[in-house]
Design a protein that fits this description.
Blueprint lengths: L2 H15 L16 E6 L7 H6 L6 E6 L10 H13 L3 E7 L9 H10 L4 H10 L3 H4 L6 H13 L9 E7 L6 E3 L4
Parallel strand pairs: 1-2, 1-3, 3-4
Antiparallel strand pairs: 4-5
Bound molecules: zinc ion.
The site of zinc ion has 7 residues, from loops.
Length: about 180
Amino acid sequence: MNARVAKILQYNEVFVDNELYLKYTTSKYPDRKIAILSCMDTRMTQLLPAALGLKNGDVKMITNAGALLTHPCGSGIYSLLVAIYELDVDTIMVVGHDDCGGKALNGVEIVEKMRARGVTQDALDHAAEHFMPVEEWMTGFGDVEHSVQHTVEIIANHGLIPKEIEVFGFVMDPETGLLRAVKND
Ligand SMILES: [Zn+2]
């Protein structure tokens, strides 16, 4: 274990010993019946729930790089299906943000970095064969409004998601937390 993880575990003991968890007590069911798919950006870890007035227990939070659904049967959709069928979610908010690191990813550069750190051609070929070439997979999504709209459409048109589920797209300012709606085309 490294020192940064050790520090986290050390705090964890203090947290539990002092019963600091008591104010977070809730159930696994989201009180507002909403799931939010957003980005893992560190600026929004606490800003997003704070700016939307959300407390522990209100919503299902699903975060990944870019608030994306990269595969129709991937972990993002899996999480949404669990939220809908097991946890009574009936509304989904997709929340991208300005200045997202996922916007301008360069897949070719990432593959170069992988090679420099010992990733083999076999591993790259395996990914290409079973999913898609890593250069394409790891390429940025470009315009955030367009990306959010695309994700909303994937959810709205997904064969495993009931038609009555409502899906809305937004972009957040990662400095102020201001949310703006993405217009449906
Ligand atoms: Zn982001």
